Amino acid sequence: RTVPVKEHVPEIEETEVTDDDRATAMEDYEKTLKEQRDRAHDGALKDKISALLKLLDAIRHAVNTDPGRVESLNKFVDYYTPTTIKLIERYLQFESSSVITDAIRKTMDDILRSLDKVIDGYEKLLDTLYKDDLLDLNAEMDVMETVMKQDGLIDESEGDGFHE
What is the pTM of this model? Predict the structure, then answer.
């Protein structure tokens, strides 16, 4: 009886999204949002896009100050940003239409409501990116307050004055 010889099968490497790819995607997203904001006529849409741009800048800053946070951007870059761009693009297409039916108006309103949810989601992402920093800062403030009380620099009744 012969024993079959196992051929060496190379392991399949997972395609890895690099930090550079994410940075490029973020830049492209920002550029597209700015273009869409410039094309928009509706003030509410312009305001929502401006809010997204501010959040995007804050998210980029959070990642640049701590590259370890970049992993939190996978779904953001791969799903949320392209979907947001698509929603805004559809709104712009409807907006430029010569006739806006009730059904189209309802869809446009739905897109604006969805963008509000996207803004909330981006704010939560930003909070998540800073979560460890916020916990560390709160702990440092608590310790400093305790030491100041022990040293008689603040009254016991002035407790919890640093962060409420």
Answer: 0.72
